[in-house]
Amino acid sequence: MASATSKKTYHHGDLRTAAIETGLALLESRKFNDLGLREIARTVGVSATALYRHFPDKDALLSALAAEGRHRLAVAQQQAADKAGGGKAGFSATGAAYVRFALANPALYRLIFIGGSKLGDENGDEAMRLLMQNARMIKGANSHVIAARAWSMAHGLAMLILDGQLPADDTLIDSVIDSHHL
After folding, report:
1. N or C: which end of the chain has fewer CB within 10 A?
2. Which residues cross the membrane (predicted)?
């Protein structure tokens, strides 16, 4: 992963990937609004013109970062579900992983939900596909309602904690996200 503090780290490889990794590293210490293409180009060690070939503007860069964030969220949720052994325990684990991902990556998490960068398309979004897959296993219930309820609960809890309205407490997260209440 490209370090946000190292210079000249890019050497005729995949500039797009290097820029995304650098952007993600910079998001660890700032809000997404504070990112700039020129800064990322400098950090990667290329000209801004070279970077503009991959990202014509800041919105294109933010969109790419959000897409990578959605992918990483889905990976974290899938790993949590697998570790919990699937089923209802796995479903709960995906919700808790969602909240913990938000807490560990607040700027990236917020970026995922701005403008046109949204979750929700089961065909094109790994996290939504996993959510719907889990919702379908709850017998006798409308899977879309279950998915909406679970997502609303996890997203609401994440936002309340990020905004300082609730403490970042693992016991609270696990208790609120418990799938037995769906």
Report:
1. N
2. none
